[in-house]
Design goal:
129 residues, D-Maltodextrin-Binding Protein, domain 2, single chain, three-stranded antiparallel sheet, 22% strand, alpha+beta, two-stranded parallel sheet, 5 helices
Length: 129
């Protein structure tokens, strides 16, 4: 799973505003990355990843998103390369007693196929045009 900085396609780059999840709600390294950068000017804070997406898309500033989200939104462009330290492997985890149940197995198999079919997108190798 890769992450990169994104901005609205019409974003005015002279300001270089950043948007971040709040320090009280940030959990993952990707959530915390923006406010851990010493020289980034954060002008908007939000408490949900959902709102972070809409603020970036609306042109309020730059922010970090998973590439599979940012690269699929035609109104966003990358504001830099994939952030390597935020890239991680995803695992499908299921309890050993449950993973062979037919309904659980179907979900596991479908998720595995989805990730395999879209591996380049999840790896950040298919930036938006």
């Amino acid at each position: 799973m890769a992450h990169a900085a994104y901005q609205s396609a019409g974003y005015d780059e002279t300001n270089c505003n950043w948007i971040s999840l709040g320090t009280d709600t940030a959990v993952t390294p990707a959530d915390k990355w923006t406010f851990e950068q010493p020289d980034y000017w954060i002008t908007s804070w939000t408490n949900t990843p959902h709102m972070l997406f809409y603020l970036i898309r609306g042109g309020a500033g730059r922010g970090v998103l998973p590439c599979f989200i940012g690269d699929q939104e035609r109104r966003l462009v990358r504001a830099g390369p994939v952030i390597d330290e935020l890239t991680y492997e995803m695992w499908i985890v299921a309890h050993d007693d449950e993973r062979q149940r037919p309904e659980v197995r179907i979900v596991i198999d479908r998720l595995a196929a989805l990730f395999a079919d879209h591996e380049e997108l999840f790896a950040g190798q298919r930036p938006s045009a």
